[in-house]
Design brief:
two-stranded antiparallel sheet, 148 residues, single chain, 57% helix, 2 helices, 3-stranded antiparallel β-sheet
């Protein structure tokens, strides 16, 4: 099994990821190059075979700047109290960090699922080996009994 990442063929925007068979042929819209941690809105560059995007810290700064610009254009949105505004900014940043963590956890979960599938295959192979050994032992016993 291997991890692949799906991207929009036109924009390069990441659309998802999945554990797939090692025999899957990589075609347009799919890559096995991992998305670097800490990228927001990652995009795949087919020519460079690399991911690009905005660093999480830069994205958070941009969001704060956008929020300040929004408040400047729409003063009616300014909270009554400075503590409320500060709390809203902190909550916004926490949500973004949590979203990034969730994306990482999804990737980690997919890796664990792949490992579980591999272990299940190994267990199945071991069971088959034990069955073959038991069959061979039974055949050997029946030959011994036949010879006596």
């Amino acid at each position: 099994m291997k991890q692949v990442y799906f991207y929009d063929k036109k924009t390069g925007q990441l659309t998802g990821s999945e554990q797939v068979s090692d025999t899957l042929v990589i075609t347009a819209g799919i890559t096995d190059i991992p998305v670097p941690k800490g990228l927001v809105n990652p995009k795949f560059n087919v020519e460079n075979q690399s991911w690009s995007g905005t660093a999480l810290e830069d994205w958070l700064k941009e969001q704060q700047t956008n929020y300040q610009a929004l408040l400047k254009d729409h003063p009616e949105l300014i909270p009554d109290d400075e503590k409320q505004r500060e709390l809203l900014m902190q909550q916004s940043q926490q949500i973004t960090v949590m979203q990034s963590m969730m994306m990482q956890q999804d990737q980690d979960n997919m890796k664990l699922q792949s490992a579980n599938r591999q272990q299940a295959k190994q267990i199945e192979q071991l069971q088959q080996l034990f069955m073959q050994a038991n069959q061979q032992e039974a055949i050997a016993k029946s030959k011994e009994e036949a010879q006596q």
